[in-house]
Design brief:
about 325 residues; alpha+beta; 5-stranded mixed β-sheet; 5 helices; 18 strands; globular
């Protein structure tokens, strides 16, 4: 809408800051260059048609990230959804993803590291988790990892640590600079006692929740379909979690598939026998906004944010110089 009269823009004036209607045309009409990038652009000139005066206008134009638009990895590629509060999210056209406020990192792009600590202060637990990651050969910055603690109030606490890798997907590198990032499992609905399987870009992903339905561990598998190979990987994952004392009761396995994919439960009988657990098939549920606040930011996005701040500082300095010169004239 116009900044002066708050009426909708004319189609020909949608790229500018105000409309060209009367009485707005009698005021200083700010003609701003449209955004040349998804991040921001700067205005050029403002013209007062009554006084025929032209003066420089320097003002940032931001493309705000929409908090309710999500980009999540689908079975075949990225999918764009709009969250509807308590209602189920609805799918959107892929072009709407440019203004997404949340981007889900595929589980192939992050490393899930389950840990167990004695009860301690949050800062000490963070330092202990960082030491564990450094023991793996990683040297993460604060935006490269996050620790989510389970069993608060208990003497022994389980923790779910997520470390992002250098395999950053294109949708994350091209995301809005103000977008937030989280592992894809944070956008899914997990249930107590259910080990959940789904597809991301053609590969299976497994997630194990705690007693409250929050992730304890999640990782991408090398298997493409729920078969003997997938069953062997799942048994290894469960054994490793049991070895470090990060376990949860698993009553059954749920394989979630897209609505356009038909998977007969009878075809999963060998998989069920190989895992020793009942297997059910469900239609994939729409994603939801993450319940936790996430600080993960891919390095390319960090670099772009730094460049944006530098450009803003330069433009503000230039604006100050222009104002000083105009005051002296």
């Amino acid at each position: 809408a116009c900044q002066h009269c708050h009426t909708p823009h004319e189609a020909a004036a949608e790229s500018y800051g105000v409309c060209i209607r009367t009485p707005c045309a009698s005021k200083a009409v700010e003609i701003l260059s449209p955004p040349s990038s998804p991040e921001f652009a700067y205005g050029a000139f403002a013209v007062n048609p009554v006084l025929s005066q032209t003066h420089l206008v320097l003002r940032p134009y931001f493309m705000n990230a929409s908090e309710d638009i999500l980009i999540v990895p689908g079975a075949q590629g990225p999918e764009v959804w709009r969250a509807q509060g308590k209602d189920a999210a609805t799918p959107l056209d892929s072009q709407k993803g440019r203004g997404a406020g949340w981007v889900a990192l595929p589980m192939r792009s992050v490393i899930s590291v389950p840990m167990r600590f004695p009860a301690m202060a949050e800062d000490r637990r963070e330092a202990a988790a960082l030491l564990e990651l450094e023991g793996f050969g990683a040297s993460p910055s604060a935006s490269d990892y996050q620790v989510e603690t389970r069993d608060l109030g208990q003497r022994e606490q389980r923790a779910w640590t997520v470390l992002q890798t250098s395999q950053i997907p294109a949708q994350a590198q091209q995301a809005n600079l103000d977008a937030k990032f989280a592992p894809s499992v944070a956008f899914r609905t997990l249930k107590r006692g259910e080990l959940q399987l789904w597809h991301e870009a053609g590969h299976l992903v497994v997630a194990m929740p705690d007693e409250g339905g929050k992730p304890l561990h999640s990782q991408a598998l090398t298997a493409i379909e729920p078969d003997d190979d997938a069953a062997a990987e799942i048994r290894c994952v469960l054994a490793a979690l049991d070895l470090i004392g990060v376990t949860a009761e698993v009553e059954n396995i749920v394989v979630q598939t897209p609505a356009n994919v038909q998977l007969m439960p009878e075809s999963l009988t060998p998989f069920s026998a190989a895992t020793g657990l009942p297997v059910a098939v469900e239609t994939d549920k729409p994603p939801h906004l993450p319940r936790e606040a996430w600080r993960l930011v891919p390095p390319p996005v960090v670099q772009k944010r730094v460049a944006r701040r530098q450009q803003q500082s330069i433009m503000l300095a230039a604006a100050g110089c222009v104002l000083v010169i105009m005051a002296l004239l």
